[in-house]
Amino acid sequence: MHVAPVGGTAVQDHVALAEIELCGELIIAASAADEDRLSLESIDEVLKVAEERAHERGAREA
What single-letter DSSP state applies at residue 5? Predict the structure, then answer.
């Protein structure tokens, strides 16, 4: 059995950390919402989908 060494050798998974942050944002938005469920538009707003798409369009056009 191989066990990871203890100490300063931890590797951070930046994708996993970003996903955790987005999940936290969704949880906060859901807990603050008046309705039972977040609408798709609300989810897109929390996840900043429109901003990311605009950024991607700008990068392709440059």
Answer: P
Q: Which one-letter DSSP state was computed for residue 34?
A: S
**DSSP H stretches of helix in the chain:** 14-32, 40-46, 49-61
Tell me if 50 sits within 8 A of 44, measured CB to CB: yes
The SS3 of residue 7 is: coil
**Rounded to whole angstroms, how far apart are CA atoms 32 and 26?**
10
Residue 25 CA neighbour count, 13 Å, CB half: 13
Which residue in this structure is represented by tokens 């977040």?
Answer: 38
Q: Which of 18, 8, 12 is nearest to 48 (CA)?
A: 18
pLDDT tens for 27-60 read 999 999 988 899 999 999 999 998 888 888 888 8
